[in-house]
Amino acid sequence: MNASSICRRLLAVAAGFLLAAPLLGAGPTNAARPTTLAYEASAAVGSVKTFPLPRPATDVAVHWLGQRRAHVRVALSRDRVRFSKPRLVRLDELGEGVKRGETYGAVMTARGARAVRVWSDRPLRRLTVLALTDRGGPTRLPLRGLASTGQPTVVSRAGWGADESLRFDTTGKEIWPPAFYAIQKVIVHHTATRNMDPDAAATIRSIYYYHAVTQGWGDIGYNFLIDEAGNVYEGRYSRQYAPGESPTGEDLNGNGVTAAHAQGYNSGTVGIALLGTLTNQDATPAARSALERLIAWIDSSHGIDPQGSGLYTNPVSGLQATFPNIAGHRDVAATECPGGSFYATLPTIRSDVAGLIAASTPDFSVTATPGSASTSPGGSVSYSIAIGSANGFTGGVALTVAGLPAGATASFAPATVTAPGSSQLTIATGASIAPGSYSLTVSGTSSSTTHTTPIMLTVSATTAPDFALTATPGSRTVVRGASTSYTIVITPSGGFTGFVTLSASGLPGGTSASFTPNPVADSSTLSVTTASNAKPGGYTLTITGTSGNLAHSTTVSLQLKRK
Fold first, then answer.
1. In the beta sheet, which residues pair with residue 127?
2. Judgement on whether residues 454 and 336 belong to the same structural domain of the protein
3. Are the CB atoms for 183 and 249 separated by under 8 Å?
4. Shortest CA distance to 321 belongs to which of 330, 308, 312, 309?
5. Which residue segment(s) compose the domain that 113 sits in?
6. Are both 239 and 341 inside the same structural domain?
7. Which of residues 360, 377, 396 is at a domain's end?
8. Among 409, 434, 463, residue at a domain's last position
9. pLDDT exceeds 80 at position 189
10. What dihedral do alpha carbons 221, 227, 231, 235 form, nearest 10°?
11. Residue 141 — very low, low, confident or very high, per pLDDT cuts 50/70/90?
12. Secondary structure class of 288 (helix, strand, coil)
C-alpha cells in the first residue's frame, strides 16, 4: 500500500475489526467490554485531507511521521458535510519525549464527530488519525478529604474505568511492569486537553489509551491526575490495594512507582497532571487546592522540603540534575508544559504547600511570664514558663536557659514539661554579681525541634522594696460546673517583707474566685469555681497583687468546655 492510501485499523471489539490487546487470564482485565473503542486511519497529507470515521468519536488525536515543526490544524464534522472551525493541534506534552521520529498531537474532544479534516503547512508522508469512542458510564466521585497533609481522597483506576487489559500484550505479558524507587521530587504537568471538560473520567480513559496503546507505554504516563473540580485520580498502576485502602502509587515500603511523565526523570519522581490547557489561563481554584493538598501529603510523607531545590539522582541511569523539589515539566525538558500561566504560579504553590505542612505538623510553643524581672545581688526572681500544644502535640519538652551572668544560677521545676503544661524558672543571684540588665533565652527542645522565648533579668545595685507576682500553671482546662486552681507566688526583692492582697478579674459570668491565704507573704492558691451555665470558650484571667503603693499583675488562661 503506497503512502497516499488510507490504511484503517480498529483496535477494539467490534464486528469486522481487530481487538485491542486481547487477553484471557492476564491479570485484572475488563476485556469483556472495553470502555474505549479505537479506530485509526493513516494517509499522506499534502495540504488537506479528510478522514471519515466509522462511528461517532468522543475524542480524537493525530500523530505524524517526523516534521515536528509542522503546523497541523484539525476540523471536525458530525454529518461529514459541515465542519467546525479549524483548531491548531497542540503537541502531546508526554509524546514530545518519545524518540521514534513520531510527532504526537494532544487528545482533543470530538463530541460525536464522524469525519476529521486535517490541514498541514508542509507535506507529511504519513499522518494517522486516532478516533476514540468512550463507552464508560458516569463516574461516581467520592467525597474529597480535607486534611491538610493527610492523603486526599483518590479516585481509583477502577473508579475512572481503566481497562486493565491495555497494560498487557497479546501473550498476557505486562508491557511495563511496575518498578519502585524512593521519591525525591514532584513534577507538575498539564494535559494540553480542553478546558471546562464535561467528562474528566472519559478524557482520562482516552489519554490512557493514547499513552498505553498508541504510544506503546502499556499504561498512562502520569502518577496522578486532577480535574478542574479538584478530584484526584490514580494514574499509573502500582499494585493491588487492600479493601478500603486509598491508592497511593507506592509499594508497601513507601517507594513510588515509576511512570512515564518526564523522560530521564521518571524514576524517583511523582508526575501530577492538571487536566486542561494552562498556557493562557491558570488552573481553577479547586484544582490548585487539590494539587497543593496532594503535594503536601507526598512531601510530608517523604521529608521533602516544598520550597527547596536539590540534587536529583536517577536511580536507574545515574543522571543527576539540580532543580526545585516541586518542579514544572519545563524544568527538566524542552516543553512549554505545564503552561505559561500556571507555571508562573509555582512559587505560590510551593509556599502554600509549606504552609499546609506546617499547619498540620504537631508542634509546641514556649512563653514566659513575666517577660522581665528585677532583683538585687543575693536575691532571686521567678518566671512561669508555659508550654503550649498545637495540632495534637503531647511530647515532653526539655527546658534550658542561656545567657546567665557570672554569679547567677537557674533551676526549672520541672525541668521537662509534658505539653501542654508549665514550669517555674527560678534565677538566684550571688552577692558578688555585677549589676546590670541581662538578656536571657529560654529554650524548649523536643526531639529535633527547638523553640525559644526571651526574658530579661535586671540586677540593681540598690533595690527599693518590691515583689514579683507569678502564677502557675499558665493555662487550665475545666468542664462547666467544675473547679480548678492555680498557684500564685510572691517573690520579694529589695528587702520587701510586706503582705500582698490578691484579686482576680476576667472571670466568665457566674464564676467565682478565691485566694487561700489572702493577703499572702509567699504563695497562695487561687481556686476558680465555674458555673454550670457559663459560656464555653477561652478566658484570660488577670491576677493583681497590691501592697501599699506597689501593684503587679500577671495573667493565666482558663479554657471552659462543655461536658
1. 43, 64
2. no
3. no
4. 312
5. 7-134
6. yes
7. 360
8. 463
9. yes
10. -10
11. low
12. helix
